[in-house]
Amino acid sequence: MTDSKKRHPLRFLFKFMLFVGALTAVTKFMAERKKDFYGLTESEARAKFEAKLGPRIGEEKAAAVADQVIPRLREKGVIRSDAEGAVQDAKDAASDATEKIVDVTERAGASMKDAVEKIEDKID
């Protein structure tokens, strides 16, 4: 073998590290993009997707790409169906209402206690 045909371990290592670095960067970028869609409903995700892609590739192509991507995101659990979103919104509203009722009840109880103590003081 001639010198030009010999493998240089450092050159191989350098190329390998570049490849790993590029792969890591792409993976990180894709994970960040996926985070933009976590927890959204299908219609919200579709609107966001088409709004980002529409100006770049056209509205019709963006809608076609969204038709392919949205079901995959739903399968992976990144986005939720509109029905699931409505149910979750209702649960959140019920939870908020329950917290407010508990808070108002506690304040009413404290007010009643104060009133009873004032009446007892006047009686004594």
Describe this protein's structure.
The chain is an all-alpha fold and 124 residues long. It folds into two domains: 11-80; 82-124. The protein has helices at 9-35, 42-57, 59-75, 82-123. Helix 2 runs antiparallel to helix 3 (59-75). It is elongated, with a radius of gyration of 30 Å. It starts with 8 loop residues before the first helix and ends with a helix.
* String of helices and strands: HHHH
Task: State the separation between the terminal residues, measured CA to CA.
Answer: 112 Å
User: How many domains make up the 3D coordinates?
Assistant: 2
Uncertain residue segments = none
What amount of the residues lies in strands?
under 5%
Shape: elongated
Give the C-alpha Rg. Answer: 30 Å
Structural class: mainly alpha
Number of strands: 0
**What is the count of DSSP helices, taking H or I runs of 4+ residues?**
4
Keywords:
2 domains; mainly alpha; 82% helix; 4 helices; elongated; 124 residues
Write the layout of secondary structure elements.
Blueprint: H1 9-35, H2 42-57, H3 59-75, H4 82-123
Helix pairs in contact: 2-3
Short description:
This protein is mostly helical. It contains four helices and no strands. The chain has helices spanning 9-35, 42-57, 59-75, 82-123.
